[in-house]
Amino acid sequence: SSNFNINTDINLDYFINVIKDKMVYISGLNTNFKFSRNNQNVSFENLFGSLSITNKRIYTGSEIRNLNADLIFNQSKLIFSASANFNNMFDGELDGKLLMNPNVQTVLLERVWLKYMNKEWENVNDIAVDISPDYIKLKDFQIAHNKTLLYGSGQMLTEGNLDFIFGLKDLDGGLITHYSQGIANPKLKIDLDFETTVKGTLEEPLIESKLSANDIKYDKMNLGNLACGLNYANSLVKFDVRFLDSEMNYNAPRLVFDGQLPIYVGTKSVESIFLKDKELNIRLISKGFNLNTFGDLLPFIGIRNGILESDVNITGTFDDVKYSGSLKLNDGFFRLK
After folding, report:
1. Is 199 helix (H, G, I), strand (E, B) or coil?
2. What is the CB neighbour count within 10 angstroms for residue 293?
3. What pLDDT score was predicted for residue 248?
4. Whether residue 100 has pLDDT greater than 70
């Protein structure tokens, strides 16, 4: 026959099994599969088919509920649409295409929608992932909630070379407190930006990150500015966290927490990511820093006052940590929430 056709339905009320000490439970599964092709042509041009799946619940340690998925094979395109609830924590929807070409396969995500803790996130433009024998490339990854934007782009070559940038822009205080405390706190005024670049290779990555938040306010109190940096290279994590006054004087911060940690974060197989024979160095320095900067931001405690004077140094190795310096808290006033 010059044509090949399949049409089948599978309906499963429930299925339960134990695989490698892990329970697998499926209920309310319904599938429909159709497929046809012209046997006289070996290309994708005469390939057609569809697959539809609905499912009430899948449990394998994690849980998926109300899964709906549709896939349509249309010549050299695969069109897909899916939605589900994951662990009763967030809902997701995904629509897109897989474009199959001789040298590059492109996954085009036309709709990405997530709802987590009643906050909705959605893509700004079509997101593309190009897959070829030489590279995997991410283009125009942008997902937004109101003015808050998650973004990313870059590529990984088959040799393992990396060139990525990821970031978070205009994260406001309402969203921070909603996710950290379960309820938005309108008293916190902040716009936080974060960006990180990843270069190097999978085994030896080079990471540079920066975080900033200017003109932080809580209720009627001006808390100043926050500037953070984190770099990784050659099995060494270097970090620098500074609270600055309203004049943004980087060299005269109100509080400094910085240092370096010998930690390996690549993909090589190592006995421990903590390099126990290498030196670590951490400092906490403050002159009259009022801990009420943190106000009600911490989960279990509210800070009303507390003047921190500190010059603390932590040195040595992970197996032999040495502490020196002094730390003093004056006029502390805290309450449990």
Report:
1. strand
2. 20
3. 66
4. yes
